[in-house]
Amino acid sequence: MIHAQAIVVGAGPAGSAAAFELKKRSVHTLILDKSVFPRNKVCAGWITPRVLDLLDLIPRNYPHTMTEFHRLHFHLLGQTLAVKTRQYAIRRYEFDQWMVNRAKRVGARIHAHRVEKITQSKGQYIIDDRYSCDFLIGAGGTHCPVQQTLFNDLHPRSGKGLIAAVEAEYHGKALDRRCHIWFFHDKVPGYGWYLPKQGGYVNVGIGGKLLKLKHQGRTIMAHWQSFIKTLFDLSILSSIPPHPRGHTYFLRQPRLHASTRIGNALLAGDAAGLATLDMGEGIAAAIASGIQAAEAVTKGHPLSLDHLPRFSARSFLYETPP
C-alpha cells in the first residue's frame, strides 16, 4: 500500500495547483491521473489575467504557446460588438504539462492510475486497495470518481448546468486572426467560438445546455455542423476542422459552501462545477479552487468557493490594453 498525506485525483489545472500548494506547505502529496502527460485535452484554452496572477506568471516567461488578445468580438442576434480587453489563450496540451512539471519541481509525485474504487477505513481513504491517504482532493473533472463516490448522493450537481460541447484544435491556416464569440447561434442554448493561436493553431467549438438541447430535439453535433457552415460563409474557415471531439462540463453550481468538503475529502475545478455562467470559462476557477483546497487542508478550514466569480464578463475590465 502506497501512503501519502494527501492524494489528488486529477492532474489538470485544479489538481496540479492543489498539489503545488500542498507541497509548498510540506504536505506529502501524490497525484493520480488516468492519463500520461502530456495529453490532449478538449478545451478552448482561454485564460484571463487572473490566471497569471494566481500562478505568478509573466507571459514572456511562459515557455510555450500563449496568444494575447486586445479585443474580443461578440456576436448576438445579428449584431457585433468589439470589446477592448487583455485576454490570453494557451494550448492545454502544453499548459497542463507545464502545470504538472511545476508541481513536480516542488516535490509532488504523479502516478498514472485510473481510480476505480474509493473506500474509507480507520480515518483514511483507500483507493483501489493500492493507495491510502489522510486527505483526498477530487480534481478529476466532470466524471471525477471522488465526486461520484463521496459527494454525489448528498450534493448532486444540477443537471440544468450541464453543458455539452464539441470542439477541435488543429494546425491550419487562420484566415482571421481575431477572436470571435457567438451567443445563441442558430438558437443553440449557449455559445460558439473561433480562437486562433500562435504557432498556426486554431480552436473552434460550440457548446450548449444539454437539457435544453434535448428539449429542442437537436444534438450538439447538429449545431456544430450549422456553426461550421456559418464560419465558411463568413470566410473565417478555409477547411473543415478535423477530428472534432465532444465533452461535457458543469456551469457554476449553487451552494458551493455546502458541497465542496465532506470530512477530509474536498473538490476542486470541474469536479465541483465552477465554469462561469455566461462563457463557461473554468481555468481560473479551477486553479483558484485547487489553491484554496490546499489551504483548507493545511489550515483545517472549511472549503468555500462561493466568492469565485460567477461570470466572465467582469474579467474583460480586469486589465485593458494601453
Summarize the structure in short.
It is built from 7 helices and 16 strands.
Which residues form runs of ≥5 with pLDDT under 50?
none
The largest sheet, given as strand count, sense and whether it forms a barrel, is:
8 strands, mixed
Give the C-level CATH assignment of the largest domain.
Alpha Beta
Taking Cα atoms only, what radius of gyration do you get, to the nearest Å? 20 Å
- What is the CA–CA distance across the termini? 56 Å
Number of helices: 7
Number of strands: 16
CATH fold annotation of the largest domain? FAD/NAD(P)-binding domain
Mean pLDDT: 93
How much helicity do the residues have? 10-25%
Query: SSE order in H/E notation?
Result: EHEEHEEHEEEEHEEEEHHEEEH
Strand content: 25-35%
CATH architecture of the largest domain: 3-Layer(bba) Sandwich
Fourth-level CATH superfamily of the largest domain: FAD/NAD(P)-binding domain
Count of domain modules: 2
Shape: globular
Detailed description of the structure:
By secondary structure, this protein is α/β, with parallel strands linked by helices. Helix content is 24%, strand content 31%. The protein folds into 2 domains: 2-68 and 91-158 and 251-317, FAD/NAD(P)-binding domain, CATH 3.50.50; 160-248. The chain has helices at 13-24, 49-55, 92-105, 145-151, 210-216, 220-233, 283-299, and strands spanning 2-9, 29-33, 46-47, 66-76, 79-90, 109-112, 118-121, 124-127, 131-138, 162-171, 179-183, 190-197, 201-209, 245-250, 261-262, 265-267. 46% of the residues are buried.
